[in-house]
Amino acid sequence: MHDDGNNGDEKAGDGIWTIEFDFPENSSIQYKYTNSGKEGVWSPSEEFPATNRQIFIRDDGTGKMIVKDVFGQL
To answer: What's the CA gap between 74 and 65, in Å, rounded?
Structure first.
């Protein structure tokens, strides 16, 4: 994720982290956050261990979909 004003991030250092992905339209994506541990390791601080977040990818005609999400809130 980026907070450096590059790679889709609008403003460097504003505390809003950005990441871009390409997914096929009409797909369902599940994800979750972690905030510690080694890269690729889920523990010790997986957010809501029993719950995945989910979004449905749809095209509004722009070819982009912006998801605003907050770590630690469902």
So the answer is: 19
Map out the domains of the chain as residue ranges: 21-74
Q: Token match 């510690």: residue? A: 36
Burial (0-12, 13-18, 19+ Cβ within 10 Å), 32: middle
**For residues 70 and 5, which has the higher predicted lDDT (pLDDT)?**
5
pTM above 0.70, yes or no: no
pLDDT in tens, 35-50: 776 777 766 666 777 7
- Alpha helix segments (H runs only) across the chain: none
Amino acid at 1: M
d(CA 2, CA 67): 15
